[in-house]
Structure formats: C-alpha cells, structure tokens
C-alpha cells in the first residue's frame, strides 16, 4: 500500500516528503506590502530638502566674509563687531525664546566659554595664519572646497543614518576655515575669519535646529545668500540659484514621483523578531 504524502508545513524539519525549495499557495497568504510607509506632502519634502539648502547658505555666508576680507572691501574690525552683535542676538533668542531652561543659570558659563575662545583664538591666530602659508593658493582652495563638501555630506540634517557624523562635519568646516585664514593679510584677519567660522558652522546650526521646517527661515536664508553672492560674483549667484532650485524643488519632485512606485514586501521569509510579552 502506497504511503500518503504529508501536508506541507512551514517547518523545514517536517517537510521530508518535499523538496527544500517547495512552497504551496498558503506561503504567500501573509504577504504584506508597504506596511510602514509614510505619506509625505510636497511641503514636507521641500522643507526636508531645504535643510541641505540652509547649510549651503551658511557656507555661502562664510565664503562671502572671506572674499570681503581678502579683497579689502571691509575692515576686519567691522566684521568682528557686526558678527558679534548678530551672534549675541541669536544667543539671547536661543536662551530666552527657544529653550525651556533658565538662561541666567548658564549665562556665566557661556560667557566664560566665549572669553576663553576669544583669548586663545586671538593669541593663536598668528600660528593659525602661518599653518598652511607655504601651500599654494590653488591647493588651499581645492582643500577648502573638498572640506566643505565633506561638511555637507556628513552634517546632521535630523535624519538617523549611519553616514551622519556631526564631529566630522564640524571639523571639516573648521579645517577649511583654517586653510583660508592663511590667505589673509594679517593675524587679526585670520582671527576674525575663524570667529565667523565658529559662528557659522557651530552656533548658527544650533539656532536653526530649533526652527527646522520653517518656510520663512528658509526663504530668508536663500535671499540673504543670493544678495551676498550678487555683491561678489554674478556667475556664482546664478550658479547658486540653479543649485538651490535643483536641491529644493527638483529633488523633492523626483522623490514624490518615485515614492509612488515604492513597494516593500513583508512576509514569512523575513527575519524573526522576538517580542517581549509580559504577563
């Protein structure tokens, strides 16, 4: 008498009568698609891409300050006073309006930190100016461009990812600033430029992180960056506008269009997840 074949089950050790790659129609009953997909609105996509544009605007601000100092269009004392005034207003806004902590408790600590930076920065500015003085200008500009690209790639835009490294991003921007400092006329020029680098790449991102997702902030930064480039170079201004349109408008449009074709599948072939069930 012929032995009856056993019913196929999803336990491999019980399927001795079937090939290892055999599955029946019940195998795909648990198939699910796009379980955790999140619908993203056009405004959300634009504001998300705008975070990259904001950081690009910060680089434009810093480079504009360097061009003004290098070309002698503005005195370093004026830049230092104006940037310090803007930094003070931003600090008070951050402490009073955008934080829940009592700013009186940390005011003395922050002032001590600023004093230490100013004193040591001013004392070490001659060393920082001559640090890369023997390197050619073309190499300095190439290194600075490369460092700013690294700054943009590894910057923390608020999205959890393995590539994010705030320390690497900040250090790359500061290193690029040190490279540019050697092209200026005096150690005080270098001190002012490095002070602006700290304000642009350390302090300003902290302030902007509290206002992420604001159309007003994004529009104001783009407008200011366009004006700064207009005073420096019309070619760079048009190039910046093209890059801004590509990042802020075209990339979100592509993302939303391709999002419709997204199809993640989930089923019994996925890795098992152990849930902690407590009685």
Short description:
The chain is mainly α and 279 residues long.
Molecular structure report:
The chain has helices at 42-71, 76-96, 103-130, 137-154, 166-181, 187-209, 215-232, 234-259; strands spanning 32-33, 265-266. The protein is mainly α and 279 residues long. The protein has one domain (45-249). A two-stranded antiparallel ribbon has the order 1-2. It holds the Pfam family GPI2. It is a multi-pass membrane protein. Its main location: membrane.
Helix content: 55-70%
Total helical segments: 8
So what's the oligomer here? single chain
Number of domains: 1
Catalogue the unreliable spans. Answer: none
Major sheet summary line: 2 strands, antiparallel
Strand portion, in percent?
under 5%
Q: Layout of helices and strands, plus pairs?
A:
Layout: E1 32-33, H1 42-71, H2 76-96, H3 103-130, H4 137-154, H5 166-181, H6 187-209, H7 215-232, H8 234-259, E2 265-266
Antiparallel strand pairs: 1-2
Helix pairs in contact: 1-6, 1-7, 1-8, 2-6, 3-6, 4-5, 5-6, 7-8
Family: Belongs to the PIGC family.
Subcellular location: Membrane
Pfam family, one: GPI2
Provide tags for this entry.
single chain; 279 residues; two-stranded antiparallel sheet; 8 helices; 2 strands; 1% strand; elongated; Plno_GlcNAc_GPI2; transmembrane helix
